[in-house]
Amino acid sequence: MFNARTLFDKRSTDNRKEVLHYSRFIFNGHFILFLSVAFGALMLQYSDLLKHLPRGINYHFIIALLLSVSAIASLRTYFKEADQVFLLAYEKQLNSYVKKSIMAAFIKQAVIWTILFALLFPLYQAGSHFYPIGMACAYVFGLVAMKLGLFVRWSAMKLGMSNMAVNILLFLILMAGIYNSLEGVYFTALGELAFLAGLLYLMNHITKNYVFNWETVIDYEHELTQRQYKTINMFTDVKGLKDNVRRRRFLDGLLKQPDRKYNQKSMFLYLFKRNFVRSKDAFWIIIRLVVIGGLIIWLVRQPIIAAIIGIFLIYIVVLQSSQFYKQQAYQLWPQVWPVREELVIDGFRQFLWQLSLVTAIVITLIYVAFYPGHFYYAAAFFIIMWWTNQQVMNKLKKKMTLLKD
């Protein structure tokens, strides 16, 4: 007999097991050490900021902005493409499935939101206007609006509304309610909740006799699944991640047409460079890592800690880039072209060295710009770059030898 709640529990458990499986590879000793150092450095900087808080800045607006963005919860339903066929007969029984998915999404987001709220509380308390009741009101408002927002999102999917439109609507409501609560205007928050509840009632009334908009629901779930895989793929290889290709004309200069000296020894270097520059995911993953690392280096304001973060950033970029070999070397063309397999590895080695060298130079420029008096620490970036490249290539060659055997 079909049981909607049991089906959701099974799919939710399967997803949790998959995330835990990848977490073993992500949260290794090196990464935990980096997170500990980075978190400690950021908390130290945050403590100094609270002691010498600059005046003339609307901190209530900043707090409300951060809390509003983090209160917009995604709705994981775990619906699959085949469900629009096999679950069609049980559509009326899926209400309990949806309610359970909403509750699971709410609990997960509420925990994250509460942690952020606790971190921002000292900033609100250190400001020029501190209202204890206002902070409590903002917290309650955020949780209630988050729960109602998940129901609104589901009704919007039944209506076929775009996900972006729902996010903008929820953000404006959350921003208005939280900001006014922090400012001590409590009744405005009640008005925002009444508006959101009324909107939900109206949407439920309209969709009362609507069937599932399976296409919208499945597309949204697919988008969330791919987003989860992309996040994990920043640190380790992921099965099921689809990488699309996109031409970036502003980078065409890096892909000049091969000259007359072009031969089989340089063909794989060109292949890896071309696929990387035009990859939708791999390219932006590296860019995001460098940007985030650069921001952390700027924020910590501690030369030694910033150098450690720079070292770990280069280490992560090289490891992340090493997965590009698995994604590309086993594709069609490397298997079809009548060349020695050693040329594929050699081409990737050149690509990895060029990419890691560019990354090390960029991180060095960022570090020297913020800590010019400690420029000599940047030498460690190139040392770790060389060492990590050697380790990656040795493991890759060893693995290829074992596969041959």
Task: Please characterize this protein's 3D structure.
This protein is mainly α and 405 residues long. It has two domains: 4-235, no CATH class; 251-402, no CATH class. It has 15 helices and no strands. The chain is flat. The chain starts with a helix and ends with a helix. The mean pLDDT is 83. Pfam families: EcsB (PF05975). InterPro entries: EcsB_ABC. Keywords: Membrane, Transmembrane, Transmembrane helix. It comes from Macrococcus lamae.
Radius of gyration: 25 Å
Number of E-type strands: 0
List low-pLDDT spans.
none
**Count of spatially separate domains:** 2
How many H/I helices?
Answer: 15
Q: How are the elements arranged and paired?
A:
Elements (H helix, E strand, L loop, with lengths): L3 H23 L2 H23 L7 H12 L12 H4 L8 H32 L5 H28 L3 H20 L3 H21 L7 H20 L33 H11 L4 H19 L2 H27 L2 H5 L4 H30 L8 H26 L1
Helix pairs in contact: 1-5, 2-12, 3-5, 3-7, 5-6, 6-7, 6-8, 7-8, 10-14, 11-12, 11-14, 12-14, 12-15, 14-15
Q: How is this structure best summarized?
A:
This is ABC transporter permease. InterPro entries: EcsB_ABC. The chain has 405 residues and is mostly helical.
